């Protein structure tokens, strides 16, 4: 069996499967349940300093069904945690006390203010968490106040805020990227320039999950109205894989936590093959339960064995060399056609020259050449 453990920025994960920030990490009770089920790490639900104004609405989730009825996409208009940061300090400590050897990553978000970022980062680190994930990526609610994705779409702010946090703590800092941007490598590079050790990607894709065709109101509907929200689960996996690959190619050597549409081991293996060394899942455990990690572990083992990888790290980025430009694909195809045509011509000439009656049906010199061992 392959070694599923992986060392990332000095932190040892027993397996690469991490609970993504959200409902499956929304308090100490659920984080402890996740570790008990076997998850290799947990990113806690994003928290802010206590005076932040966070008011959630209900309902705040929606599902996207395929024509056959399967859930293929999910959407939320949930904000970050509405709990005080003092409550979070308690949760971090309680979870670390229960599972001291399992990596716990605090996810933090603040407005554009150095003192606030440094205060929240320092307080989280003082609780013994193993790393920080900076939420530059929440697509709804907070962008209205310049936080989350609004900050993450501005590489200058990403770099500056990351630098403030890196100055304030001695633990690895990951920056979580929004996919709601044309070129995700720009904020990712900015975060690394600011000192981030790793990039987490992606957060949710801004979307509208559907319209209620009886009353014509967009979903999820709150008092007859809605607002675009964050799409996740299977529907976003192609976008996530593309963006993880782009970051891996742009920033070789930077650790990547791949996120988006991980519902089973094969999804996680794909994230690893395009450059992720850990993989997060958030909607997966919400819809399938924490126990889904058992299939993630056994299925990844099977895939690593199938391809002869001794450790999960050996598979990281293994599909990246096979991405190229469309122009190059056309060239490769033309080269293959030319090789096939040449081989076919040689076979035809050889077949003709094997029987005396066939001589002269093609080009005579080619038929003679097909029978010649020294063709110089
Ligand atoms: C209900 C819900 C709440 C979320 N809350 C947060 C959050 O507080 N902080 C954050 O960084 N990401 C949050 N996310 C985003 C997830 O961590 C993840 O990046 C995204 O859902 C894509 O992964 P998935 O397809 O595995 O869900 C949330 C996602 C969902 C579905």
Describe this structure in words.
The chain is of the alpha/beta class. The protein folds into 2 domains: 6-320, Aldolase class I (TIM Barrel, Alpha-Beta Barrel), CATH 3.20.20.70; 326-370. Helix content is 39%, strand content 16%. The chain has helices at residues 28-37, 85-98, 114-126, 149-152, 155-168, 185-193, 237-250, 265-273, 283-288, 292-306, 312-315, 326-353, 364-370; strands spanning 6-8, 11-13, 17-19, 41-43, 61-65, 71-76, 104-108, 131-135, 173-176, 198-201, 205-207, 211-212, 217-218, 229-232, 255-259, 278-281. Strand 15, helix 8 and strand 16 (278-281) form a beta-alpha-beta unit. The structure holds flavin mononucleotide.
How would you summarize this macromolecular structure in one to three sentences?
This protein is an alpha/beta fold and 376 residues long.
CATH hierarchy: architecture of the largest domain: Alpha-Beta Barrel
Major beta sheet, specifics?
A: 8 strands, parallel, barrel
In terms of DSSP E residues, the strand content is: 15-25%
Radius of gyration: 26 Å
The best one-word shape is elongated
Q: What is the number of beta strands?
A: 16
Average of pLDDT? 95
The helix content, as a percent range, equals 25-40%
Bound molecules: flavin mononucleotide
The number of helical runs is 13
Which strand order does the major sheet show?
Answer: 3-4-7-8-9-10-15-16
Distance between the termini: 52 Å
Indicate the CATH class of the largest domain.
Alpha Beta
Number of structural domains: 2
Structural class comes to alpha/beta
């Amino acid at each position: 069996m392959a070694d599923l453990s992986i060392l990332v920025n000095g932190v040892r994960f027993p397996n690469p499967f991490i609970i993504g920030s959200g409902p499956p990490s929304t308090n100490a009770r659920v984080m402890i349940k996740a570790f008990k089920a076997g998850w290799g790490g947990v990113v806690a639900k994003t928290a802010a300093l206590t005076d932040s104004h966070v008011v959630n609405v209900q309902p705040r989730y929606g599902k996207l069904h395929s024509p056959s009825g399967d859930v293929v996409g999910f959407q939320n208009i949930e904000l970050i945690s509405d709990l005080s940061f003092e409550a979070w300090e308690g949760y971090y400590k309680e979870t670390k006390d229960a599972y001291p050897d399992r990596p716990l990553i605090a996810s933090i978000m603040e407005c554009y203010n150095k003192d606030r970022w440094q205060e929240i980062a320092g307080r989280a680190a003082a609780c013994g968490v193993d790393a920080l994930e900076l939420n530059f990526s929440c697509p709804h609610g907070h962008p209205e106040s310049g936080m989350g994705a609004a900050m993450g779409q501005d590489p200058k702010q990403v770099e500056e805020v990351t630098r403030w946090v890196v100055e304030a703590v001695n633990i690895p800092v990951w920056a979580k990227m929004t996919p709601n941007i044309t070129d995700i490598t720009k904020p990712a590079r900015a975060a690394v320039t600011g000192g981030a050790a790793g990039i987490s990607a992606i957060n949710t894709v801004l979307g509208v999950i559907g319209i209620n065709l009886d009353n014509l109101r967009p979903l999820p509907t709150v008092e007859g109205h809605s607002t675009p929200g964050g799409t996740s689960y299977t529907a976003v996996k192609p976008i996530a894989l593309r963006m993880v690959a782009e970051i891996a190619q742009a920033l070789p050597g930077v650790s990547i936590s791949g996120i988006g549409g991980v519902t089973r081991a094969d999804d996680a293996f794909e994230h690893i093959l395009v450059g992720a060394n850990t993989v997060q899942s958030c909607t997966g455990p919400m819809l399938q339960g924490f126990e889904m990690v058992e299939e993630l572990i056994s299925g990844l083992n099977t895939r690593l064995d199938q391809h002869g990888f001794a450790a999960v790290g050996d598979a990281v980025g293994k599909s990246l060399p096979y991405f190229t430009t469309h122009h190059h694909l056309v060239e490769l195809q033309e080269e293959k056609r030319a090789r096939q045509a040449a081989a076919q011509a040689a076979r035809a000439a050889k077949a003709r020259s094997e029987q005396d009656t066939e001589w002269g049906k093609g080009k005579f010199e080619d038929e003679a050449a097909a029978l010649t061992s020294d063709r110089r």
